[in-house]
Design goal:
Elements: E1 5-11, H1 15-25, E2 29-30, E3 34-36, E4 41-47, E5 52-58, H2 64-71, E6 76-84, H3 87-96, E7 108-109, E8 115-119, E9 128-133
Parallel strand pairs: 1-5, 6-9
Antiparallel strand pairs: 1-6, 2-4, 3-4, 4-5, 7-8, 8-9
Length: about 130
């Protein structure tokens, strides 16, 4: 079911400062910020030869990232995103196996313009998992 790792997401309190650190200190290519109001975040992507790192900043006080940063004020790993060929088939197989899909169970369009779903971290050893159809 799972394909390659698409990205690892890190919640940050200041996306400009985090972008600067990745660009200037680590020498990475960093995308321009992209606001995703339907997800409550602003994102940038750090491009790597084999994957990406997604930096997330809250967009508004209702953002799920705001709550995460309340518990982890310096930021930290938020989720890992795996690629799947068919997100609806993956969802149905996971639900049949007892996994919980967050939200209403229907895919939303993610930062890459592709359908995404999130799986409950309690079902995967404390790790929030995002699935992205490729």
């Amino acid at each position: 079911m799972l394909g390659r790792i698409n990205h690892i997401a890190i919640a940050v309190p200041d996306i400009a400062a985090a972008s600067k650190a990745y660009r200037e200190t680590l020498g990475a290519a960093v995308s321009q910020p992209q606001a995703l109001p339907e997800h409550g975040v602003t994102v940038v992507f750090v491009e790597l030869p084999n994957s990406k790192v997604e930096l997330l900043e809250p967009l508004g006080e209702a953002s799920p990232i705001a709550a995460f940063l309340t518990r982890n004020s310096d930021g930290g790993m938020h989720h890992i995103c795996y690629e799947v060929a068919d997100i609806l088939a993956a969802r149905d197989q996971l639900v049949a196996s007892g996994a919980r899909v967050l939200g209403n169970g229907e895919p939303k369009i993610g930062a890459h313009g592709k359908p995404v779903l999130f799986l409950h971290p309690k079902d995967f050893f404390g790790t929030l998992i995002e699935l992205e159809q490729v």
